[in-house]
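Hi R.,

Here's the chain you asked about this morning:
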Amino acid sequence: MPRAARARRPATEKAGAQAVYFPSCITRVMGRTPGEPVETSLMEALVTVAGRASLPVWIPGDVAGTCCGVPFSSKGYDLAHSIAVNRAISRFWEWSDHGRLPIVLDTSPCTYGVTTCRPSLTPGNQEKFDRLRILDSVAFVHDQLLPRLTVRRAVSSAALHPVCSVIKLNLSGKLEGIARACSREVVVPLHAGCCGFAGDRGFLFPELTEAATRREAAELQSGGHDGHFSSSRTCEIGMTRATGHVYRSFLYLLDHATRP
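And here is the predicted structure, written out as tokens:
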């Protein structure tokens, strides 16, 4: 189980920000897993690399209590999902200055949930949704930050686990592109697929994750990688359990590779 995340968010300013950074509930609650290096939080990593690329992001002060609604929709709690996602879109609209700034999410399943939520929105929020730019951190980093960053210390080898939502969002190539810019070798296991964690199922039924990841884990047993990376904290927990190697956000790889 991960430790509790740090209570304090990194300091950011709206003035001059090029994007609104919406840290997912998971990011705000779950910190590092046992064996993971003690360094910056995920929020600090994204804020840092964005600043390094001269495209600063802003975390709204009232972000607490805002949820993408996926924990409810995945269990069929339609009313709770509708309430949560309508609240989120309303806040995105205000935070972004009515669509002027893009909204960046750091957890791919949350991005997928928000970008496909239109049928659950009120007519008013559907109009707002249509004018919002909602980006997964993979797309934001690949398209906007990476071209403005200098890789100074590429690792020898990085193993990737593209989560289901990254595949659905057609971002696998961009995730690999980020890793290839920061690594001399990138490995995506042939049997990489759904980790079976499914939100919270992996906490309650670990044998589900164990079965789903068996072949992928077998491919990674030889080791030899400097790091293992993904874009969803719960999926990273599942893959860490399955392989015995600590999985972390790809943002840590980018931060390490581009430090001055």
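One quick note: The mean pLDDT is 93.

Cheers,
M.
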